[in-house]
Amino acid sequence: MRTACAALAAVLLPLLVAAPARAVDRCAPERHPWHVALGAGAGIGLFFASHGRVGLSVGRILADRFEVELTLHYDGATDLAGHEEALRLGVLLDFSRRWELMLGWRVGHARHHKQLPAGSLWVDSLVASLVGELRLALAQRWQLRLTPFAATGYWNEIWGFTLEPSAGLAFRF
Fold first, then answer.
1. Domain ranges in the chain?
2. How far is 35 from 142, CA to CA, in rounded Å?
3. SS3 at position 75
4. Hey, which residues does 69 pair with through a beta bridge?
């Protein structure tokens, strides 16, 4: 077990730490470290209500490898509405000049409103997520973002979980 962990660390640590030299490409994002992104997806509930999501985020790439992003999401379903503010930190890994993978986590606050037969209920909760996002450079300033994996936990005395696949566009400046 220890040998397998050491071998995995020997392979992954150079990828995460060393900043590879990128070829200059018309789609390369390094000239534009700031971005604004808009996306939509679903929150598939596990011990939590399923719902649709739209989100807006603003972020910055630091040292051509790390990303800091503020995300705002609005959730909505027939009897559930809510909003979420979170800070996301991630590491960018390049696959080619146009494809990159962002692996990160998000932590923040969510407030949901649930309509009940006898009235309504507002619930505040802590949000913690693991996120894996694929990014495709479409043009010098535009990027397609696909999130096949985002697992989010909502905590308010008990845990509720969602899986959140989504897609969106980002504009870099």
1. 31-172
2. 9
3. strand
4. 59, 88
